[in-house]
Amino acid sequence: MALVLGTIYNYYHYLFYEFEDPRMSPYFLVHSPIPVLSIIVLYLFFVLKWGPEYMQDRKPYDLKNVIKFYNLFQVCYNLYFATYGLWNSYLQSNFSFVCQPYDPTDNRESMQRLLYAGFMYYLSKYVDLLDTVFFVLRKKNNQISFLHVYHHAGMVMGVYVYLKYLAGSHPTLLGILNGYVHVFMYSYYFITSLGENYSKKFAWCKKYVTQIQLLQFALLVVHFILPLLQENCPHPKFISMVGITQNAFMFALFFDFYYKSYIKKNK
């Protein structure tokens, strides 16, 4: 038994502390997986059990001003790291859209700035968890769907894995695209949070938020296919397959939501 536990510990230590990208280990919430997993578990328990039970016999909280500030913050924050990341990646002559390999020894100034942008993106995934917390506190439990919870919790874990093992490589496009999609999405949320008149006036934008998200996942599927078409691309094929599968799955979930909300409903 001691031998088994020792083997598990050695593998754990190697995977999370020796195999990690040394450039990212000093960053907050990157070195150890324990705080990351703890936050995800607490999030799931709160939005699925503790929160609804706490709010069961209480009136919904009035969070209008909080949500206005939150939406505006998300617009500015996502625009900042997405633009900063874009400038230091695909707008650099030595960064490839077709096949960008992972190189933990790359310490160029532009790469260091890109790693910082990646970390800012990573932190935004924790901020995104507040979406569901607000649903719970406002008793909007009908909006806490499997798609919503899976997407938010999965993104925290997915970006953590990217920063720890693949920082500055081919999946970089995911963070940049996702940042700009969130700029559009939270801009819409901010405008509609200003009052009922604005909500009605800009109601036509709602379906385009989902359309842009669908476009994002479709582009990412193509993006992860590209390294597989290059004979000498050193980007791990397994990562490309995971990227293709995950984004295709997200496309299917979002399309199911879009079909039920707009196509089937209109019929």
UniProtKB/TrEMBL annotation:
Statement: the UniProt record of this protein carries the keyword Amino-acid biosynthesis: no
Main location (coarse class): membrane
Transmembrane segments: 27-48, 69-87, 114-137, 149-167, 173-191, 212-229, 241-259
Class of enzymatic activity (EC top level): transferase
Record has Coiled coil as a keyword: no
Signal sequence, start to end: none
Assigned EC number: 2.3.1.199
Pfam families, alphabetized: ELO (PF01151)
Molecular function terms from GO: fatty acid elongase activity
Protein name: Elongation of very long chain fatty acids protein
Native source organism of the sequence: Hermetia illucens
Taxonomic lineage of the native organism: Eukaryota, Metazoa, Ecdysozoa, Arthropoda, Hexapoda
